[in-house]
Request: fold
Amino acid sequence: MASLKTTITVYNWVFKLTGAVLLIGLALILYFGQYKGLVEAFVGLLIGGYALMRLIPFIKTQRSGVIRTINIIEIIAHIAIAALFIFVGLTQENGLGNLFGYILGGVLIGRGMIHFYGVSSGHEKGDHPTYFFHVAALVVGTVVVINGYNVESIITLILVLSLGASLYLGYDAYGGYGQYRRRKQLEVTPQDVPVAETTIPKREFPAEHPDEIVQ
Reply:
């Protein structure tokens, strides 16, 4: 019987597909429904989830004490901000108001600055996806701080990001299902595969002591 880890690996396409559908559904509810007050809580969940995901792996893999300390402080701050957003979003009808935009912009700008500082110091390795992500974080954060908080713009941004993430998860789930089917075909038992009958031809061997021919 397969282990739990193997089972999760084999069927991870199910979780990805489910996540993609739920993500689109949640984004559409926020966009078309009267749930503007939940935007702060939703953003808080995103910030908190990202911070918790980074915490242990980053501490284990980052060798620079300075970079590790800076990022740990950032992660702790993000967890506290996430808790604030979730609490206020679920309990206060008007939310944080303009303060939400300033805090969110500060989070994005800080993330971009810390990332590029780590890369420029040589203690972090960058790639194209993380480069464009953190450039976008700096740009969006600056725009949010300058223009202030606009709930409609935040909801539209969440919808766009959710659709993009759902497309990626759906494509990944499609590939995972293909691997799952190929794996199932390889696990077909031998008795299920018909074997053609073959006839082994007889082979004649010379005698060990043939009679000598006398002339």
Observations:
- The chain has one domain: 4-181.
